[in-house]
């Protein structure tokens, strides 16, 4: 067997091994106990696939190694180290934004590969033989269709993810709408498809440029009207888009690693999108076209919020037997997870049964709260999901809500005019007593008032999350020493 064939065979085997590592890593990510190991396994697979790309003859085509391509690959790897260093410094509260922008880079990369492939094919003047297709000098109809589709999906994912990042980072208002917006968006999308169809028939550089400009505009227009409350679902959907685009580009380039990795990412992203939409009891079409999350809506809530001071709240906890803590994005912003775990330890020390209730989309991204609590040292067996904990609220003495808002709002079950009606929530209102730790009287990400805060069994402890937890710990110790209420 000649050396090039042997190297290609080894490359194929390495890609297969990398694919196995991707899948095994993804499986391990399904559990908090093995998630870190899963990320490491998938990382090894990615390193293996990247290294093999440098030596596989089929990567370079019939004319050997292209120094320009080699330079670009080295530059990309160098930039990845820069982003890795940046990611290490990103606070956990900004993780959703980082996920959005990194996902956008994946989509943008797929779109850039498609653009390069189409421009290269447009410049090719010879006969598009099987050998020329294999050398990536031109594209047959199948590859051209996949290149156009992958570029469209990747470009939409890129620009849409940038807008999602800007919204989550507070750089854009929650939504932008105008009369006839959906019709306008449809016209732009159809125009983009028309240009894509043109490219399949005849490649022209000016049409390629126009196609990509419109594809980027589609991503922006698609994301601008979507409210912040739905942004986690949108990010997950764009993640699926990116995976699909990468898989298409894998076929165009003849790369098994890209096909497998893209398919896995796309399938996982779509599954997560469906799970999140189900957790909000809304179809994906409603997420994309309802402009949810812009604020307002629903019946007027009567009554007043009842403040409580730390000593009285500590007394309720001291007398309680069962306590459920419901963390939300506000806890992440306050970086209060360590103090909350310290408070939990104080309660457990006093023979209280304490559990953490997690909504499927709490903290703007699935698993965000789990990561925060794990970072603080909370054991996994104390963290319970919504379906398991909801029946237990009725027998809970005190529920502490820290930073959560829309996911505990009972109007989701009672007010059909509310924009969150039908969304599954944590039934905190069923607890015997509820203490809400909140800095002020602001609304949640959906922009509506929370009926829980006005309930007879609910009291508001106005304070920063860390400050409130510290005061409760101090007051619990004071009760033990005889100095409390």
Instruction: Let me know the largest β-sheet.
Output: 6 strands, parallel
Structural class, by secondary structure, is alpha/beta
Average pLDDT, rounded to a whole number, is 83
Approximate helicity band = 55-70%
> Low-confidence spans: pLDDT under 50, at least 5 residues?
none
- The number of E-state strands comes to 6
Shape: elongated
Q: End-to-end distance, in Å?
A: 86 Å
Spell the H/E element sequence. Answer: HHHHHHHHHHHHHEHHEHEHEHEEH
| Count of runs of 4 or more consecutive helical residues | 19
The largest beta-sheet arranges its strands as 3-2-1-4-5-6
Radius of gyration, taken over Cα atoms and rounded to an integer in Å: 26 Å
- The percentage of residues in β strands lies in 5-15%
Structural summary, described in words:
With 485 residues, the chain is of the alpha/beta class. The chain is built from 19 helices and six strands. A six-stranded parallel β-sheet has the order 3-2-1-4-5-6. β4, α18 and β5 (433-438) form a beta-alpha-beta unit. α1 (3-28) packs antiparallel against α2 (35-55) and α7 (141-168) packs parallel to α9. The longest helix is centred in the N-terminal third of the chain and has 29 residues, at 95-123. The protein is elongated, with a radius of gyration of 26 Å.
Write the layout of secondary structure elements.
Layout: H1 3-28, H2 35-55, H3 57-60, H4 67-89, H5 95-123, H6 130-134, H7 141-168, H8 181-201, H9 205-223, H10 231-253, H11 256-279, H12 284-289, H13 310-319, E1 322-327, H14 329-334, H15 337-349, E2 353-358, H16 368-376, E3 383-385, H17 386-389, E4 398-402, H18 411-414, E5 433-438, E6 458-462, H19 465-480
Parallel strand pairs: 1-2, 1-4, 2-3, 4-5, 5-6
Helix pairs in contact: 1-2, 1-11, 5-7, 5-9, 5-10, 7-8, 7-9, 7-10, 8-9, 10-11, 13-19, 15-19
């Amino acid at each position: 067997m000649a050396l090039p064939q042997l190297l290609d065979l080894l490359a194929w085997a390495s890609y297969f091994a990398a694919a196995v590592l991707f899948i095994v890593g993804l499986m391990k990510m399904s559990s908090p106990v093995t998630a870190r190991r899963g990320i490491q396994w998938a990382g090894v697979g990615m390193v293996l696939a990247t290294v093999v790309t440098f030596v596989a003859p089929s990567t370079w085509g019939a004319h050997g190694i292209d120094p320009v391509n080699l330079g670009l690959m080295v530059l990309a790897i160098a930039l990845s180290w820069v982003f890795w260093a940046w990611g290490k410094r990103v606070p956990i509260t900004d993780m959703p934004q980082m996920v959005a922008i990194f996902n956008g880079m994946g989509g943008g990369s797929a779109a850039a590969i498609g653009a390069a492939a189409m421009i290269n094919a447009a410049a090719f003047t010879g006969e598009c033989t099987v050998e020329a297709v294999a050398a990536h000098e031109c594209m047959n109809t199948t590859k051209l269709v996949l290149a156009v589709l992958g570029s469209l999906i990747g470009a939409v994912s890129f620009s849409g993810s940038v807008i999602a990042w800007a919204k989550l980072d507070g750089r854009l208002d929650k939504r932008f709408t105008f009369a006839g917006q959906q019709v306008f968006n449809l016209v732009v999308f159809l125009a983009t498809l028309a240009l894509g169809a043109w490219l399949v028939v005849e490649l022209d550089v000016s049409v390629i440029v126009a196609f990509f400009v419109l594809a980027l505009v589609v991503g922006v227009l698609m994301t601008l009207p979507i409210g912040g409350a739905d942004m986690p679902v949108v990010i997950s959907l764009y993640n699926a888009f990116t995976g699909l685009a990468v898989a298409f580009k894998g076929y165009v380039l003849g790369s098994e690693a890209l096909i497998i990795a893209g398919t896995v990412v796309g399938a996982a992203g779509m599954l997560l999108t469906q799970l999140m939409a189900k957790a909000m009891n809304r179809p994906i079409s409603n997420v994309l076209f309802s402009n949810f999350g812009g604020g307002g809506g629903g019946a007027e809530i009567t009554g007043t919020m009842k403040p409580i001071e730390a000593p009285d709240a500590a007394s309720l906890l001291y007398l309680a037997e069962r306590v459920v803590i419901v963390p939300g994005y506000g806890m992440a912003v306050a970086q209060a997870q360590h103090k909350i775990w310290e408070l939990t330890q104080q309660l457990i020390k006093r023979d209280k049964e304490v559990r953490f209730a997690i909504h499927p989309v709490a903290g703007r991204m699935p698993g965000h709260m789990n990561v925060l609590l794990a970072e603080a040292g909370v054991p996994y067996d104390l963290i319970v999901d919504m379906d398991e904990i909801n029946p237990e609220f009725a027998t809970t003495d005190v529920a502490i809500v820290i930073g959560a808002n829309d996911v505990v709002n009972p109007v989701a079950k009672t007010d059909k005019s509310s924009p969150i009606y039908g969304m599954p929530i944590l039934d905190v209102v069923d607890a015997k007593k509820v203490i809400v730790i909140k800095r002020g009287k602001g609304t949640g990400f959906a922009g509506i008032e929370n009926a829980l805060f006005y309930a007879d069994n609910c009291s508001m402890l106005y304070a920063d999350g860390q400050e409130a937890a510290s005061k409760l710990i101090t007051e619990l110790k004071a009760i033990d020493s005889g100095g409390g209420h």
